[in-house]
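go over this record:
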Amino acid sequence: MKRWMGAALAAVAGGMVAVPSWTGPQAVARAAGSPMQVVGFWANDAVSGLSGLYKYPKSITWFTPFWYSVKANGHLVDRTVPSIKKEVMAKHIPVTPLVNDMTGTQAFLKSPSTLTNAARNIADMVKANHYAGVSIDFEPQHVSVAPELSHFMVELRDFLPKGSVITLSVVPHSGGAYQWSALNPEVNQYVLMSYDQHDDGSYAGPVAATPWVQNIVTRMEKTVPPSKIDLGVALYGYEWPKGSTHAVTIPYNAVTPTMHKNAKWDSADQETYATFRSTSMGPVNVWWESLQGMNQKIQLAKQDHLAGIALWHMGYANDSVYQLLLHQVGTQP
């Protein structure tokens, strides 16, 4: 889906130089035979899916709400929802809030003082709220900030409480923006944003065709150990008017009876789609990640011995998604 910074996964570009430096924090790496970890993202635009989380609190490993943003001066914007924070912590679900770049240009990374200020403020936020760690989602688009991003991660690790989890979201087509040999020792896990192969701005097609996702995973495994990779899984789809590149997001918990009635499974792309006439849009094409498609991604993660999966986002889930997680991922003790 189009995320808050509008980053679309269009293609996987070259430039990821293999650097087999796989040392660093391993506290969250998955041991053979142990349950896969599940990062459950959440954004403030949807709350209905959280009723299932409260019902099945062992279905995810970390609750990762989009609550904070970094300004150009390194200060944080706080969008915490106290009622949700209280409920999640009462269910003993570890929280690793997402922090994104409010500027969209990583402006705070370009000055040593604002870089340090941002790292210190994020660490202070984690300490003050007793969070299990933090999820960084800066989504750099340019190679020019790669050294600064690495420097930031070193400072963040130093400021954070011992044992804190650092998660870094990775946009695959920005390969040159990541210095893997410097990042791997500091980052516990990477969220591979393996969705939005097609989205608003493209013609109709799968949100994340399994062969396309496999190619992205294979490329990333050349620079990052599989035990540090969480595979991004979409809990949504898109609806396009026939012949148009403008798409509307369809959360999984808002899939309509008409979509279900006309649903077909694409065996090559391993995703669900439907074509029908909408009363408001005329002929439409819809592609979405059904439970069958979600399960295919889980099996891919297992096959490649990845650390786990990362779901965008839990506000789009219903009880069937949580039940799938408990059955297939094995987070329930």
Observations:
- Residues 1-31 have pLDDT under 50 and may be disordered.
- The first strand starts at residue 37 and ends at 42.
- The chain has one domain: 37-236+289-329.
